[in-house]
Predict the 3D structure of the following.
Amino acid sequence: MRQVDVSTIRDEVARLSQETNYYLDEEILAAFEEGREEDESPAARAVFEQLLENARIAAEEQVPMCQDTGTAVVFLELGQEVELVGGYLEDAINEGVSRGYTEGYLRKSIVEGPADKRKNTGDNTPAVIHTRIVPGDQVKITLAPKGGGSENMSRIQMMKPADGLEGIKDFVVETVVEAGPNPCPPVIVGVGIGGNFEKAALLAKEALLEPISDDNKNSEMPELEREILEEINKSGVGPQGFGGRTTALGVNIKTYPCHIASLPVAVNINCHAARHQSVTL
Amino acid sequence: MTKRISTPLDEETLAELKAGDKVLLSGSVYTARDAAHERLIKLLEAGEELPIEIEGAVIYYVGPAPAKPGYVIGPAGPTTSYRMDPYTPQLLDAGLKGMIGKGSRSREVRDLLQKHKAVYFGAVGGAAALISSSIKESEVVAYEDLGTEAIRRLKVEDFPLMVVDDIYGDDLYEQGVEKYRIKQEV
């Protein structure tokens, strides 16, 4: 068994909390540049110009690109040949989030007593943690801060198997287009198909961690992704909903086998500040 | 063309603003989002005085990130506005003339904007670091216990905005989508 001290995980979570919020992925920056050159709507081009300038300031000054620095969503792939020492894993992750958000001047957006008290926990904990046990002796940590505006526009539907591809397509497009300007378009769309109620939602979230450019993609359903993207971008919603051709930058689909009676479909929308970074220990 | 305007918003200025106009706003704006709105409405319902000068005021829906040392304020982009729709009618009654946020307003709010001759502006969501560079002063004026949700008075210079809903009932989101939507072939 390889030993990994949870203090290392804590430190990496703290570092990733800050870096994901300061530095936007190259792939997204490239998509902004393309939009600035190619969207035929002047308002859309102006939005892309502002987003590029914003990303530059955030990276140079090491300040968050968006004031909504999100719920800290942590994906952990834990090798089954790893022995964790030095404390409890989830405590270490939450300490990392607390430290990263406090020392990095990130906003604390988490309230406890969600249904009534809604009291801010003060350090953006607890994180939402998804742990999978995988083969091997490594630990992969992915941090994906997720803003509230786009999360609020996400949906899940237990469809009928008879709804098929057309039904799935309509549901995804409708979800994104009806969200209009609210989730901060241009958005990235994560779609989970299959599994069951909670699995579909998790697949949709995981789909948001995948690359969006054709060069980097390893799609399960490339054709459906392309069709949905095309349909969304015909809507005219455009960046910030001001009207334009770029409503979504990418659509990623993940699937899982499901029950003969079911066709669960989840749509998780990410704003243009698509933040996620990983490290392998 | 970009219009330069200042707070407090007077009738003449409001009459000139049309959905889709680019605007640079200067002057004082108050920040308030979900929790602060709830408290303001409780005061109005109890007939008590508000902690802000509401007549002609502009409210910016924002919960800024903490300021780094040497900064006036942290990144401060708009939050989604529809969550403030339930509180907006009473604030308009009290004299509110402008709101800044992102995303669509309810039919009711849009009708009331027309009735009260008030305007809803859109800022670019997610351009938080850029927007904070147009904020020159920031002071908490109420509800410090709410942290990021406290009410602040900001002094802004050339805050870049778009007019979303004007006093004539027009809406940029509807117009934009209509203009760029590719209709289904029949």
